[in-house]
Design goal:
This protein has helices at about 80, 130, 155-160, 190-200, 210-225, 250-260, 280-285, 295-310; strands at about 15-25, 30-40, 40-45, 65-70, 70-80, 95-100, 105-110, 110-120, 125, 140-145, 145-150, 180-185, 205-210, 240, 270, 290-295. It is α/β, with parallel strands linked by helices. Helix 5 packs parallel to helix 6. Residues about 1-5 have low confidence and may be disordered.
């Protein structure tokens, strides 16, 4: 499956997900767990070589080993181990070959069903209690036909498997005066990381869990500025948004901001694992002022300061 075959116009609040499943011991439909990930992260689906067991010396039990994939060596993680599911071993299991945050990784599952086009508004955000649990890697739930499909936060899985993925580089830039940024991200871990890094760069941080919440906060700031005879720029300097979020995604949020006479003056930066050469045109089409790949925090800080100063 090639990414180029999946074309969606940015700003429509739609996405395409690939639905897959993990069968637990028992073998009936009742023991099938359905999950979904954004098609934009999936390079292809291949048949698994049927690993016998996880690598005994692995730093994490979900690491199955590596397999050759053309000119690359592909590390493979067992999603069932991470999700604490007792996977039933069957023939023709699959590996979802993914690419995000400039890394190619394989994730083992029992099988794949199909691709669905849905709206982010159809994805229900997890409860605040669930989303803030350290072990949670579900960032949304969608009802498709007669079943619930759990949207997996693959970035969190990979970040916890490999701490270097979170980006621990020191911030080398500091704003000449304190600026205010609105950070929009559905991941509790990522919101915390971005806030920590940008605070080091002399930013005052406001946060929102998704695009809809961010739009409400920005609209309130616009109304407050108007009532006080100020401009929005007197209250906030810049918006930093993830792309994949339930209810409203980052593309739709950016388009709304740029279509607004007052809010459109604010610079908007997309900070996402989906910033690739193939996907960059989508951010350009909705008017994003910059696009930066997670977890390049130092680049984020320096480019935010440059945009504001400009």
């Amino acid at each position: 499956m090639a990414q180029a075959e999946i074309l969606l116009k940015a700003g429509t609040n739609e996405l395409e997900i690939i639905e897959f499943y993990i069968d637990e011991d028992g073998g009936t439909a009742e023991n099938r767990n359905y999950f979904g990930v954004n098609v934009a992260k999936v390079l292809e689906v291949i048949e698994s070589p049927n690993f016998d067991r996880a690598v005994k010396s692995a730093v994490d039990p979900c690491f199955l080993g590596t397999i050759p994939l053309r000119e690359k060596i592909l590390p493979v993680l067992d999603l069932s181990v991470w999700l604490d599911l007792s996977r039933k071993t069957t023939a023709h299991e699959v590996i979802l070959v993914t690419e995000f945050n400039n890394r190619v990784t394989g994730f083992l599952a029992s099988g794949v069903t199909q691709i669905h086009r849905i709206s982010w508004s159809d994805i229900e955000a997890p409860s605040r209690y669930l989303s803030e649990m350290d072990t949670n890697c579900i960032n949304g739930i969608a009802r498709i036909e007669d079943r619930f499909v759990q949207m997996l936060d693959l970035e969190k899985i990979l970040a916890e498997f490999d701490p270097a993925f979170q980006g621990h580089d020191d911030i080398t830039v500091r704003a000449p005066k304190q600026y205010t940024a609105l950070i929009v991200d559905d991941s509790t871990v990522m919101r915390h990381l971005i806030k920590e890094k940008l605070t080091q760069a002399n930013f005052n941080i406001k946060v929102a869990d998704n695009g809809e919440e961010a739009w409400q906060k920005l609209s309130a700031l616009r109304d407050e500025a108007e009532a006080d005879g100020k401009t929005v720029a007197d209250l906030i300097d810049i918006v930093v948004s993830d792309i994949e979020m339930p209810v409203m995604d980052g593309y739709s949020l950016t388009k709304r901001i740029k279509d607004d006479a007052e809010l459109g003056k604010l610079p908007v930066v997309l900070f996402s694992s989906l910033i690739t050469r193939e996907q960059r045109h989508r951010g350009d089409s909705v008017g994003a002022d910059d696009q930066i790949t997670k977890p390049e925090f130092d680049a984020l800080a320096s480019r935010l300061v440059a945009l504001i100063e400009r």
